[in-house]
Protein backbone atom coordinates (compact mmCIF):
# COMPACT_ATOMS: atom_id res chain seq x y z
CA UNK A 1 0.00 0.00 0.00
CA UNK A 2 2.66 2.44 1.06
CA UNK A 3 4.87 1.39 -1.79
CA UNK A 4 2.21 2.08 -4.35
CA UNK A 5 2.15 5.81 -3.85
CA UNK A 6 5.55 6.72 -5.24
CA UNK A 7 4.85 4.61 -8.34
CA UNK A 8 1.57 6.34 -8.73
CA UNK A 9 3.22 9.71 -8.46
CA UNK A 10 5.85 8.71 -10.98
CA UNK A 11 3.06 8.03 -13.35
CA UNK A 12 1.58 11.45 -12.73
CA UNK A 13 5.02 12.91 -13.08
CA UNK A 14 5.47 11.35 -16.50
CA UNK A 15 2.13 12.69 -17.62
CA UNK A 16 3.10 16.08 -16.27
CA UNK A 17 6.21 16.11 -18.38
CA UNK A 18 4.20 15.57 -21.50
CA UNK A 19 1.75 18.30 -20.55
CA UNK A 20 4.44 20.69 -19.44
CA UNK A 21 6.34 20.34 -22.68
CA UNK A 22 3.25 21.36 -24.55
CA UNK A 23 2.45 24.13 -22.10
CA UNK A 24 5.95 25.57 -22.40
CA UNK A 25 5.30 26.42 -26.00
CA UNK A 26 2.21 28.37 -25.16
CA UNK A 27 2.33 30.67 -22.17
CA UNK A 28 3.46 31.05 -18.58
CA UNK A 29 3.79 27.89 -16.60
CA UNK A 30 1.47 26.35 -14.12
CA UNK A 31 1.35 22.82 -12.81
CA UNK A 32 -1.09 20.58 -14.57
CA UNK A 33 -2.50 17.61 -12.73
CA UNK A 34 -4.36 15.07 -14.80
CA UNK A 35 -7.39 13.59 -13.08
CA UNK A 36 -9.63 10.75 -14.01
CA UNK A 37 -12.98 11.14 -12.34
CA UNK A 38 -15.25 13.95 -11.27
CA UNK A 39 -14.12 13.90 -7.63
CA UNK A 40 -13.36 17.28 -6.19
CA UNK A 41 -10.84 18.01 -3.47
CA UNK A 42 -9.66 20.92 -1.36
CA UNK A 43 -6.93 23.33 -2.37
CA UNK A 44 -5.64 26.82 -1.61
CA UNK A 45 -5.00 29.87 -3.75
CA UNK A 46 -2.29 32.36 -2.85
CA UNK A 47 -4.08 35.66 -3.34
CA UNK A 48 -2.79 39.22 -3.03
CA UNK A 49 -5.52 41.71 -2.15
CA UNK A 50 -5.48 44.32 -4.94
CA UNK A 51 -6.99 47.22 -3.05
CA UNK A 52 -8.48 47.81 0.38
CA UNK A 53 -11.32 45.31 0.64
CA UNK A 54 -13.59 44.06 3.37
CA UNK A 55 -13.21 40.45 4.44
CA UNK A 56 -16.66 39.77 3.02
CA UNK A 57 -15.71 41.38 -0.30
CA UNK A 58 -12.65 39.17 -0.71
CA UNK A 59 -14.78 36.16 0.19
CA UNK A 60 -17.40 37.09 -2.38
CA UNK A 61 -14.77 37.47 -5.13
CA UNK A 62 -14.26 33.73 -4.73
CA UNK A 63 -17.79 32.91 -3.54
CA UNK A 64 -16.53 31.42 -0.32
CA UNK A 65 -17.61 31.71 3.30
CA UNK A 66 -15.94 34.74 4.97
CA UNK A 67 -15.43 32.69 8.13
CA UNK A 68 -13.64 30.00 6.10
CA UNK A 69 -11.40 32.70 4.63
CA UNK A 70 -10.53 34.02 8.10
CA UNK A 71 -9.88 30.63 9.71
CA UNK A 72 -7.73 29.47 6.79
CA UNK A 73 -5.48 32.41 7.59
CA UNK A 74 -5.59 31.88 11.37
CA UNK A 75 -7.28 35.27 11.79
CA UNK A 76 -9.21 35.55 15.04
CA UNK A 77 -12.93 35.47 14.25
CA UNK A 78 -13.97 36.63 17.70
CA UNK A 79 -13.32 40.27 16.80
CA UNK A 80 -16.58 42.23 16.61
CA UNK A 81 -17.91 42.67 13.08
CA UNK A 82 -14.87 40.88 11.71
CA UNK A 83 -16.53 40.22 8.32
CA UNK A 84 -16.62 43.96 7.68
CA UNK A 85 -13.02 44.45 8.70
CA UNK A 86 -11.10 46.20 5.94
CA UNK A 87 -8.06 44.30 4.74
CA UNK A 88 -5.08 46.30 3.53
CA UNK A 89 -4.04 46.39 -0.10
CA UNK A 90 -1.24 43.90 -0.99
CA UNK A 91 -2.10 41.57 1.90
CA UNK A 92 -1.29 37.96 0.99
CA UNK A 93 -4.06 35.51 1.85
CA UNK A 94 -4.70 31.82 1.44
CA UNK A 95 -8.09 31.25 -0.15
CA UNK A 96 -9.65 27.83 0.47
CA UNK A 97 -11.34 26.58 -2.70
CA UNK A 98 -12.81 23.42 -4.14
CA UNK A 99 -10.67 21.89 -6.85
CA UNK A 100 -12.66 20.06 -9.51
CA UNK A 101 -11.75 17.77 -12.36
CA UNK A 102 -12.67 19.36 -15.70
CA UNK A 103 -11.86 17.66 -19.02
CA UNK A 104 -9.29 15.48 -17.28
CA UNK A 105 -7.43 18.32 -15.61
CA UNK A 106 -7.65 19.69 -12.09
CA UNK A 107 -8.97 23.22 -11.98
CA UNK A 108 -11.28 25.37 -9.95
CA UNK A 109 -14.35 26.59 -11.84
CA UNK A 110 -16.56 27.68 -8.95
CA UNK A 111 -15.53 31.33 -9.16
CA UNK A 112 -17.67 33.79 -11.09
CA UNK A 113 -17.12 37.47 -11.55
CA UNK A 114 -19.69 40.09 -12.42
CA UNK A 115 -18.10 42.77 -14.59
CA UNK A 116 -18.15 46.41 -13.58
CA UNK A 117 -17.58 49.56 -15.64
CA UNK A 118 -13.95 50.02 -16.70
CA UNK A 119 -13.08 46.34 -16.19
CA UNK A 120 -10.97 44.75 -18.87
CA UNK A 121 -10.04 41.09 -19.09
CA UNK A 122 -6.49 42.11 -18.21
CA UNK A 123 -7.52 44.09 -15.13
CA UNK A 124 -9.74 41.24 -13.95
CA UNK A 125 -6.96 38.70 -14.44
CA UNK A 126 -3.89 40.62 -13.32
CA UNK A 127 -5.33 42.91 -10.68
CA UNK A 128 -8.60 41.65 -9.25
CA UNK A 129 -7.51 37.98 -9.28
CA UNK A 130 -3.83 38.87 -8.74
CA UNK A 131 -2.43 36.90 -11.66
CA UNK A 132 -4.02 33.58 -10.69
CA UNK A 133 -5.66 33.57 -14.12
CA UNK A 134 -4.70 35.13 -17.44
CA UNK A 135 -6.87 37.31 -19.65
CA UNK A 136 -6.65 34.60 -22.33
CA UNK A 137 -7.89 31.93 -19.95
CA UNK A 138 -10.91 34.04 -19.01
CA UNK A 139 -11.55 34.76 -22.68
CA UNK A 140 -11.39 31.08 -23.57
CA UNK A 141 -13.49 29.90 -20.62
CA UNK A 142 -16.25 32.31 -21.58
CA UNK A 143 -15.94 32.07 -25.37
CA UNK A 144 -15.48 35.81 -25.66
CA UNK A 145 -14.84 36.68 -29.30
CA UNK A 146 -14.11 40.37 -28.84
CA UNK A 147 -12.43 41.10 -25.49
CA UNK A 148 -12.61 44.84 -26.12
CA UNK A 149 -16.35 44.85 -25.55
CA UNK A 150 -17.24 43.56 -22.11
CA UNK A 151 -20.82 44.13 -21.08
CA UNK A 152 -21.13 45.62 -17.63
CA UNK A 153 -22.87 43.15 -15.33
CA UNK A 154 -21.87 40.17 -17.43
CA UNK A 155 -21.05 37.12 -15.30
CA UNK A 156 -17.76 35.49 -16.22
CA UNK A 157 -16.38 32.14 -15.15
CA UNK A 158 -12.93 32.66 -13.69
CA UNK A 159 -10.98 29.40 -14.06
CA UNK A 160 -8.35 29.15 -11.33
CA UNK A 161 -5.38 26.80 -11.01
CA UNK A 162 -5.41 24.10 -8.36
CA UNK A 163 -3.86 20.72 -7.66
CA UNK A 164 -4.49 18.03 -5.07
CA UNK A 165 -2.22 15.08 -5.89
CA UNK A 166 -4.48 12.90 -3.78
CA UNK A 167 -3.98 15.09 -0.72
CA UNK A 168 -0.48 13.81 -0.17
CA UNK A 169 3.12 14.77 -0.74
CA UNK A 170 5.77 12.09 -0.22
CA UNK A 171 3.01 9.94 1.31
CA UNK A 172 2.24 12.54 4.00
CA UNK A 173 -1.00 14.52 4.07
CA UNK A 174 -0.64 17.80 2.21
CA UNK A 175 -2.78 20.53 0.72
CA UNK A 176 -1.53 22.40 -2.33
CA UNK A 177 -1.24 26.18 -2.56
CA UNK A 178 -1.33 27.72 -6.06
CA UNK A 179 1.27 30.43 -5.79
CA UNK A 180 1.88 33.22 -8.32
CA UNK A 181 5.61 33.89 -8.60
CA UNK A 182 6.54 37.54 -8.04
CA UNK A 183 9.51 39.29 -9.68
CA UNK A 184 11.64 39.03 -6.53
CA UNK A 185 10.95 35.37 -5.76
CA UNK A 186 13.50 32.62 -6.08
CA UNK A 187 12.68 28.97 -5.75
CA UNK A 188 15.01 28.75 -2.74
CA UNK A 189 13.15 31.61 -1.04
CA UNK A 190 9.78 29.98 -1.70
CA UNK A 191 11.04 26.64 -0.40
CA UNK A 192 12.31 28.28 2.79
CA UNK A 193 9.16 30.34 3.22
CA UNK A 194 6.96 27.26 3.05
CA UNK A 195 9.29 24.90 4.92
CA UNK A 196 9.77 22.62 1.97
CA UNK A 197 12.77 21.71 -0.16
CA UNK A 198 13.94 22.72 -3.60
CA UNK A 199 13.79 19.15 -4.81
CA UNK A 200 10.26 18.68 -3.54
CA UNK A 201 9.07 21.85 -5.28
CA UNK A 202 10.83 20.83 -8.49
CA UNK A 203 9.39 17.35 -8.27
CA UNK A 204 5.82 18.52 -7.61
CA UNK A 205 5.99 21.08 -10.41
CA UNK A 206 7.89 18.82 -12.82
CA UNK A 207 10.63 21.42 -13.21
CA UNK A 208 13.92 20.71 -14.92
CA UNK A 209 15.74 23.60 -13.27
CA UNK A 210 15.27 26.02 -10.40
CA UNK A 211 14.58 28.87 -12.81
CA UNK A 212 11.23 30.54 -12.24
CA UNK A 213 9.80 33.69 -13.69
CA UNK A 214 7.25 36.18 -12.49
CA UNK A 215 3.65 35.11 -13.10
CA UNK A 216 4.50 31.41 -13.23
CA UNK A 217 2.15 29.52 -10.95
CA UNK A 218 3.68 26.96 -8.64
CA UNK A 219 1.95 24.26 -6.66
CA UNK A 220 3.37 24.36 -3.13
CA UNK A 221 2.64 21.41 -0.84
CA UNK A 222 1.76 22.44 2.72
CA UNK A 223 1.79 19.82 5.48
CA UNK A 224 -1.78 19.31 6.64
CA UNK A 225 -4.09 17.36 8.90
CA UNK A 226 -6.36 15.05 6.94
CA UNK A 227 -9.82 13.96 8.00
CA UNK A 228 -11.21 10.50 7.71
CA UNK A 229 -14.90 11.25 7.17
CA UNK A 230 -17.12 8.90 5.20
CA UNK A 231 -17.65 9.70 1.52
CA UNK A 232 -21.30 10.61 2.11
CA UNK A 233 -20.40 13.31 4.66
CA UNK A 234 -20.96 16.89 3.48
CA UNK A 235 -17.42 17.77 4.56
CA UNK A 236 -15.78 14.65 3.12
CA UNK A 237 -12.11 15.27 2.36
CA UNK A 238 -11.70 18.13 4.86
CA UNK A 239 -7.99 18.88 5.08
CA UNK A 240 -6.52 21.66 7.22
CA UNK A 241 -3.01 23.01 6.68
CA UNK A 242 -0.62 23.12 9.63
CA UNK A 243 -1.02 26.33 11.59
CA UNK A 244 -4.59 27.07 10.61
CA UNK A 245 -8.24 26.37 11.28
CA UNK A 246 -11.34 25.36 9.36
CA UNK A 247 -14.96 25.83 10.23
CA UNK A 248 -17.36 23.04 9.35
CA UNK A 249 -20.72 21.42 10.13
CA UNK A 250 -22.76 24.59 9.48
CA UNK A 251 -20.42 26.68 11.64
CA UNK A 252 -20.90 24.32 14.60
CA UNK A 253 -17.38 22.94 14.69
CA UNK A 254 -13.94 24.35 14.37
CA UNK A 255 -11.05 22.09 13.42
CA UNK A 256 -7.40 22.96 13.82
CA UNK A 257 -4.07 21.57 12.70
CA UNK A 258 -0.78 21.73 14.60
CA UNK A 259 1.46 22.95 15.96
CA UNK A 260 2.49 19.89 17.96
CA UNK A 261 1.31 17.15 15.63
CA UNK A 262 -0.61 16.71 12.42
CA UNK A 263 -3.75 15.16 13.91
CA UNK A 264 -6.92 17.01 13.03
CA UNK A 265 -8.53 18.32 16.21
CA UNK A 266 -12.17 19.44 16.16
CA UNK A 267 -14.21 21.07 18.91
CA UNK A 268 -17.39 23.14 19.16
CA UNK A 269 -16.98 26.54 17.53
CA UNK A 270 -17.82 29.58 19.57
CA UNK A 271 -20.14 31.03 16.94
CA UNK A 272 -23.69 31.57 18.05
CA UNK A 273 -25.53 29.03 15.93
CA UNK A 274 -27.83 26.21 16.88
CA UNK A 275 -26.24 22.84 16.45
CA UNK A 276 -27.27 19.21 16.65
CA UNK A 277 -25.88 17.17 19.51
CA UNK A 278 -22.12 17.10 19.79
CA UNK A 279 -22.02 14.53 22.54
CA UNK A 280 -20.54 11.09 22.06
CA UNK A 281 -23.02 8.32 22.58
CA UNK A 282 -22.81 6.40 25.87
CA UNK A 283 -20.59 9.01 27.43
CA UNK A 284 -20.71 12.48 28.87
CA UNK A 285 -17.98 13.65 26.53
CA UNK A 286 -18.45 16.32 23.89
CA UNK A 287 -16.58 16.51 20.59
CA UNK A 288 -13.02 17.52 21.43
CA UNK A 289 -13.09 16.23 25.00
CA UNK A 290 -10.27 13.92 26.01
CA UNK A 291 -9.98 12.08 29.31
CA UNK A 292 -6.86 10.34 30.50
CA UNK A 293 -6.37 7.70 33.14
CA UNK A 294 -2.99 6.43 34.28
CA UNK A 295 -3.00 2.66 34.38
CA UNK A 296 -0.38 0.00 34.87
CA UNK A 297 0.32 -0.49 31.18
CA UNK A 298 0.42 3.21 30.29
CA UNK A 299 -2.15 5.88 29.78
CA UNK A 300 -5.75 5.10 28.97
CA UNK A 301 -6.89 7.88 26.64
CA UNK A 302 -10.57 8.26 25.78
CA UNK A 303 -11.57 10.90 23.29
CA UNK A 304 -14.74 12.05 21.62
CA UNK A 305 -13.92 12.81 18.00
CA UNK A 306 -15.73 14.43 15.14
CA UNK A 307 -16.55 12.07 12.28
CA UNK A 308 -18.19 14.27 9.62
CA UNK A 309 -21.40 16.18 8.93
CA UNK A 310 -24.08 13.84 7.63
CA UNK A 311 -27.60 14.95 6.79
CA UNK A 312 -27.35 17.91 9.14
CA UNK A 313 -26.10 15.74 12.01
CA UNK A 314 -22.72 15.84 13.66
CA UNK A 315 -21.24 12.35 13.65
CA UNK A 316 -19.21 11.58 16.74
CA UNK A 317 -17.02 8.63 17.57
CA UNK A 318 -15.71 7.63 20.96
CA UNK A 319 -12.26 6.11 20.85
CA UNK A 320 -10.16 4.57 23.57
CA UNK A 321 -6.51 3.77 23.27
CA UNK A 322 -3.67 2.79 25.53
CA UNK A 323 -0.72 5.08 24.99
CA UNK A 324 2.77 4.95 26.49
CA UNK A 325 2.39 8.45 27.93
CA UNK A 326 -0.54 10.68 28.65
CA UNK A 327 -0.92 13.47 26.07
CA UNK A 328 -0.55 17.03 27.30
CA UNK A 329 -3.22 19.64 26.88
CA UNK A 330 -4.31 20.27 23.30
CA UNK A 331 -2.23 23.02 21.66
CA UNK A 332 -3.64 25.40 19.10
CA UNK A 333 -2.11 27.35 16.25
CA UNK A 334 -1.65 30.99 17.23
CA UNK A 335 -4.37 33.33 16.00
CA UNK A 336 -3.63 36.74 14.59
CA UNK A 337 -5.72 39.88 14.86
CA UNK A 338 -7.43 41.01 11.64
CA UNK A 339 -4.54 42.61 9.71
CA UNK A 340 -4.56 46.36 9.27
CA UNK A 341 -1.26 46.75 7.49
CA UNK A 342 0.99 44.58 5.37
CA UNK A 343 3.95 43.44 7.39
CA UNK A 344 6.88 42.74 5.18
CA UNK A 345 7.97 39.22 5.86
CA UNK A 346 11.71 39.50 6.32
CA UNK A 347 12.10 36.21 8.15
CA UNK A 348 13.02 34.37 5.01
CA UNK A 349 14.31 37.32 3.06
CA UNK A 350 17.11 36.24 0.81
CA UNK A 351 20.45 37.43 2.11
CA UNK A 352 23.99 36.70 1.02
CA UNK A 353 24.14 33.25 2.52
CA UNK A 354 27.22 31.27 3.53
CA UNK A 355 26.27 29.17 0.52
CA UNK A 356 27.85 31.71 -1.81
CA UNK A 357 31.31 30.75 -0.60
CA UNK A 358 30.76 27.06 -1.02
CA UNK A 359 29.14 27.41 -4.38
CA UNK A 360 32.32 28.29 -6.19
CA UNK A 361 32.97 31.96 -5.83
CA UNK A 362 31.20 35.13 -6.63
CA UNK A 363 31.51 34.99 -10.38
CA UNK A 364 28.70 35.60 -12.77
CA UNK A 365 25.80 33.23 -12.37
CA UNK A 366 26.06 30.33 -14.77
CA UNK A 367 22.40 30.12 -15.47
CA UNK A 368 20.07 32.98 -15.94
CA UNK A 369 18.03 33.15 -12.82
CA UNK A 370 17.27 36.81 -12.97
CA UNK A 371 13.63 37.37 -13.50
CA UNK A 372 12.60 39.00 -16.74
CA UNK A 373 10.65 42.17 -16.22
CA UNK A 374 8.38 41.66 -19.20
CA UNK A 375 5.50 40.61 -17.05
CA UNK A 376 2.10 41.91 -16.30
CA UNK A 377 2.67 42.54 -12.62
CA UNK A 378 0.75 45.34 -11.00
CA UNK A 379 2.57 48.61 -10.91
CA UNK A 380 1.80 48.94 -7.24
CA UNK A 381 3.11 45.54 -6.25
CA UNK A 382 5.87 46.17 -3.78
CA UNK A 383 8.69 43.69 -3.59
CA UNK A 384 8.17 41.59 -0.52
CA UNK A 385 11.14 40.70 1.61
CA UNK A 386 13.78 43.17 0.61
CA UNK A 387 15.41 44.92 -2.26
CA UNK A 388 15.30 43.16 -5.59
CA UNK A 389 19.04 43.42 -5.99
CA UNK A 390 19.86 41.27 -3.01
CA UNK A 391 17.13 38.85 -3.95
CA UNK A 392 18.48 38.09 -7.39
CA UNK A 393 22.02 37.94 -6.08
CA UNK A 394 21.04 35.23 -3.71
CA UNK A 395 19.07 33.51 -6.42
CA UNK A 396 22.13 32.97 -8.52
CA UNK A 397 23.97 31.57 -5.55
CA UNK A 398 21.23 29.12 -4.87
CA UNK A 399 20.95 28.23 -8.51
CA UNK A 400 24.59 27.51 -9.08
CA UNK A 401 24.34 24.77 -6.49
CA UNK A 402 21.72 23.01 -8.54
CA UNK A 403 23.10 23.87 -11.91
CA UNK A 404 23.66 20.33 -13.16
CA UNK A 405 19.91 19.95 -12.94
CA UNK A 406 19.40 22.72 -15.44
CA UNK A 407 20.09 20.18 -18.11
CA UNK A 408 16.56 19.05 -18.69
CA UNK A 409 16.90 15.41 -19.82
CA UNK A 410 19.46 14.75 -17.08
CA UNK A 411 17.09 16.19 -14.56
CA UNK A 412 14.32 13.93 -15.73
CA UNK A 413 16.46 10.85 -15.44
CA UNK A 414 17.77 11.95 -12.07
CA UNK A 415 14.34 12.64 -10.68
CA UNK A 416 12.96 9.43 -12.05
CA UNK A 417 15.88 7.63 -10.50
CA UNK A 418 15.17 9.27 -7.16
CA UNK A 419 11.53 8.33 -7.54
CA UNK A 420 12.46 4.80 -8.35
CA UNK A 421 14.75 4.55 -5.36
CA UNK A 422 11.99 5.92 -3.16
CA UNK A 423 9.58 3.41 -4.56
CA UNK A 424 11.71 0.41 -3.72
CA UNK A 425 12.66 1.65 -0.27
C1 LIG B 1 -4.88 8.32 -2.22
O1 LIG B 1 -4.61 8.41 -0.85
C2 LIG B 1 -5.32 7.48 -0.05
C3 LIG B 1 -4.97 7.74 1.39
O2 LIG B 1 -4.97 9.09 1.66
C4 LIG B 1 -4.93 6.07 -0.48
O3 LIG B 1 -5.68 5.14 0.27
C5 LIG B 1 -5.22 5.89 -1.96
O4 LIG B 1 -4.75 4.62 -2.39
C6 LIG B 1 -4.51 6.97 -2.76
N1 LIG B 1 -4.90 6.84 -4.15
C7 LIG B 1 -4.02 6.88 -5.13
C8 LIG B 1 -4.60 6.76 -6.49
O5 LIG B 1 -2.83 7.02 -4.93
C1 LIG C 1 3.67 22.85 11.97
O1 LIG C 1 3.83 24.22 12.32
C2 LIG C 1 4.60 24.42 13.47
C3 LIG C 1 4.58 25.90 13.80
O2 LIG C 1 4.74 26.68 12.69
C4 LIG C 1 6.01 23.91 13.24
O3 LIG C 1 6.79 24.09 14.41
C5 LIG C 1 5.93 22.44 12.90
O4 LIG C 1 7.20 21.94 12.60
C6 LIG C 1 5.02 22.22 11.72
N1 LIG C 1 4.85 20.79 11.50
C7 LIG C 1 5.08 20.25 10.29
C8 LIG C 1 4.92 18.79 10.19
O5 LIG C 1 5.38 20.92 9.32
C1 LIG D 1 -15.77 19.18 26.91
O1 LIG D 1 -15.80 20.14 25.86
C2 LIG D 1 -16.61 21.27 26.16
C3 LIG D 1 -16.70 22.12 24.90
O2 LIG D 1 -15.46 22.22 24.26
C4 LIG D 1 -16.00 22.02 27.33
O3 LIG D 1 -16.78 23.15 27.63
C5 LIG D 1 -15.94 21.08 28.51
O4 LIG D 1 -15.30 21.71 29.59
C6 LIG D 1 -15.21 19.80 28.18
N1 LIG D 1 -15.35 18.84 29.26
C7 LIG D 1 -14.33 18.10 29.70
C8 LIG D 1 -14.64 17.13 30.78
O5 LIG D 1 -13.21 18.19 29.24
C1 LIG E 1 -9.91 2.78 29.59
O1 LIG E 1 -10.99 3.64 29.95
C2 LIG E 1 -12.27 3.22 29.45
C3 LIG E 1 -13.26 4.30 29.78
O2 LIG E 1 -12.90 5.04 30.91
C4 LIG E 1 -12.61 1.89 30.04
O3 LIG E 1 -13.84 1.45 29.53
C5 LIG E 1 -11.52 0.89 29.67
O4 LIG E 1 -11.78 -0.36 30.33
C6 LIG E 1 -10.17 1.39 30.14
N1 LIG E 1 -9.14 0.50 29.64
C7 LIG E 1 -8.06 0.15 30.36
C8 LIG E 1 -7.08 -0.76 29.69
O5 LIG E 1 -7.87 0.57 31.48
C1 LIG F 1 -30.03 11.36 4.70
O1 LIG F 1 -31.42 11.57 4.77
C2 LIG F 1 -32.15 11.02 3.68
C3 LIG F 1 -33.61 11.40 3.83
O2 LIG F 1 -33.85 12.13 4.96
C4 LIG F 1 -31.96 9.52 3.65
O3 LIG F 1 -32.63 8.97 2.53
C5 LIG F 1 -30.47 9.21 3.55
O4 LIG F 1 -30.26 7.81 3.63
C6 LIG F 1 -29.72 9.87 4.66
N1 LIG F 1 -28.29 9.65 4.45
C7 LIG F 1 -27.49 9.18 5.39
C8 LIG F 1 -26.08 8.97 5.00
O5 LIG F 1 -27.87 8.94 6.52
Automatic annotation (TrEMBL):
| Region of interest (Disordered), residue spans | 346-379
Enumerate the Gene3D superfamilies for this protein.
LysM domain
CDD domains for the chain: LysM (cd00118)
Residues spanning the signal sequence: 1-28
Q: Where is the composition biased (Low complexity)?
A: 367-379
Sorted alphabetically, which InterPro entries does this protein's record hold?
A: LysM, LysM_dom_sf
Q: Matching PROSITE patterns, A to Z? A: LYSM
The record ties this protein, via SUPFAM superfamilies, to: LysM domain
- Domain (LysM): residue spans on this chain: 111-158, 177-220
Entry keyword set: Signal
Q: Know the name of this protein? A: PREDICTED: lysM domain-containing GPI-anchored
**Upper lineage:** Eukaryota, Viridiplantae, Streptophyta, Embryophyta, Tracheophyta
Amino acid sequence: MVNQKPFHKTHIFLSLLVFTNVALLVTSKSTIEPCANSDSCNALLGYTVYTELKVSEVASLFQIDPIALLTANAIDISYPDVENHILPSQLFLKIPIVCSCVDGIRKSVSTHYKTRPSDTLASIADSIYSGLVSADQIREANSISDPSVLDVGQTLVVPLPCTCFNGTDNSLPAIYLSYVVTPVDTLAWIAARYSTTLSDLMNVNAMGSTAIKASDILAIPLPACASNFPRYAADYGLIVPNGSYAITASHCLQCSCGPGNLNLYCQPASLAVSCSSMQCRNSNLMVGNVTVQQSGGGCNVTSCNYGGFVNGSIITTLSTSLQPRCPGAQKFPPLIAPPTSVIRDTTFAPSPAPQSDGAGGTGAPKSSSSVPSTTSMLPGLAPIGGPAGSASGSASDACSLINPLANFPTAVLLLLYVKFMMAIL
